[in-house]
Amino acid sequence: MKGVAIVVGLFALLALLGPELAPYAPDDDDLEHILEGPSAAHLLGTDEIGRDQLSRMLHAARTSLSTVALVLAGALSFGVLVGSIAALRGGIVDEVLMRITDVALAVPNLVIALAILGFMGAGTTNMVFALMLAAWPAYARLSRTLIVQIKRRPYIEAVQLMGARRTWILRRHLVPAVLGPVLVYATADAGFIVVSVATLSFLGLGVQPPTPEWGQMLVSNLQFMETRPELVVFPGLALTLLVIGFNFAGERVALDRVPRPLSKRALARRRKEALA
């Protein structure tokens, strides 16, 4: 768990402080130092138009993580809203919303995103919107299932009998209870969104040059794979480590929510407290 926290925390720190730590601006070109190897002036070398590779890597960390954060925030918010409405209203509203959700879940996320981008055009904003529309159904289905289970509990029924409004019950009791499991799923889903952002940028449909992004850096430097492999290796390695960190973090958070059996010492302590 410590290693996972270090990896994810390191990337978050790079996203926060990377542009300030970068020795050069990401779009500063130097035609006199094209495709140079690592040196004191350029620790990771330069690309085909003389831009510092380290500076672009550091700026790309913020681009990638901020994009993932926007997609997760939008998908989670809209998905929880749809799931909450379906669970609280029930009847035909629940049936219609869940059938729409099932249809969206039956289509792979990247296929939906590619279809939306084919209609709206390439660009960072359109990519974020497309990935939001592709990711929200999973959160809607999960939140709807959880709310249906929770609202049948005695304390919720008691609050309803006391005359509390649905919106108040949703805000004070249902949404706080749902956020925990939904955030666990979002942590695990972050790795897939990182890959989706890099894939769409690799295809030229996401982040557009000269804005640095790891997937876009891969496709622009792929032609120099044989002569300057580090131009491809470092962005690919950064993506790999980030995805692995998010996946392990999601699994670990999910495991931490599973109740564990108490040790003999803990059981003895609780018996003493109960007797006291």
From TrEMBL:
The chain crosses the membrane at residues 65-88, 100-120, 126-143, 174-207, 231-250. SUPFAM superfamilies: MetI-like. InterPro entries: BP-dependent_transpt_permease, MetI-like, MetI-like_sf. Signal peptide: none annotated. Keywords: Cell membrane, Membrane, Transmembrane, Transmembrane helix, Transport. Coiled coil: none annotated. Residues 61-250 form the ABC transmembrane type-1 domain. The keyword Transport applies. The keyword Ribonucleoprotein does not apply. It is found in: Cell membrane. It is a multi-pass membrane protein. Its main location: membrane. Pfam families: BPD_transp_1. Belongs to the binding-protein-dependent transport system permease family. This is ABC transporter permease subunit.
